[in-house]
Amino acid sequence: IKVNNLCKLVDKLEDRKVELSMEKATRISTIGLGLALGLAWALGILLVGIVALVAPDFAVDPFRDMFNIFYPGWGKSIGETLLMTVWSFTHGFVGGFLIGIFYNFFATKFN
Predict the structure, then answer these.
(1) How far apart are CA 21 and CA 15, in angstroms?
(2) Phi/psi at 95 (nearest 5 deg)?
(3) Within its chain, how far is the Cα of 104 from the centroid?
(4) Which of 26, 48, 52, 56 is geometrically suited to a Cys-Cys bond with 75, CB 3.0 to 4.6 A?
C-alpha cells in the first residue's frame, strides 16, 4: 500500500512539473518581440521611403500622403526619411512590447 501511495505522489509531482513547464513555455519575451517588430517595421518604412525618393512623383504621391499622416516629412528627403525610420522603429517596438504583455497576460489566464 505504501508503494502505491508513493507512486501516486510521484505522478502528482510529475503532473505539477508539466504544468509549470507549460506555463513557462507559453510566455513570450516582450523585449524580443518589441525589437523584432520594431526592426521589421523600420526596415519596411525605410525601403518604401527609398522607393518614394527615386520613383516618379505621380506614382508615389498617394503613398507619400498616406505615410505622411504618421511620419511627417517621410519620402521628401533622405534625412527626413531616415528620421522617420527611427520614429517608425519606436512605433513598432511599443506595439510589439504591448502585444507581448497582453499575450503573456491572456496566456496565463486562459491556459
Answers:
(1) 10
(2) -60, -45
(3) 13
(4) 52
10's grid cell: 510521484
Please give the grid coordinates belonging to residue 97: 512590447
Pull the grid cell for residue 55: 520613383
CA distance 48 to 13: 55
Question: Exposed (0-12), middle (13-18) or buried (19+): which is 39, by Cβ within 10 Å?
Answer: middle
Model confidence pLDDT, tens digit, residues 61-107: 888 888 888 888 887 888 988 999 999 999 999 999 999 999 999 88
Q: Is the pLDDT of residue 39 over 80?
A: yes
User: How many Cα atoms sit within 13 Å of 28 on the Cβ side?
Assistant: 18
CA angle 70, 73, 76 (to 5 degrees): 135
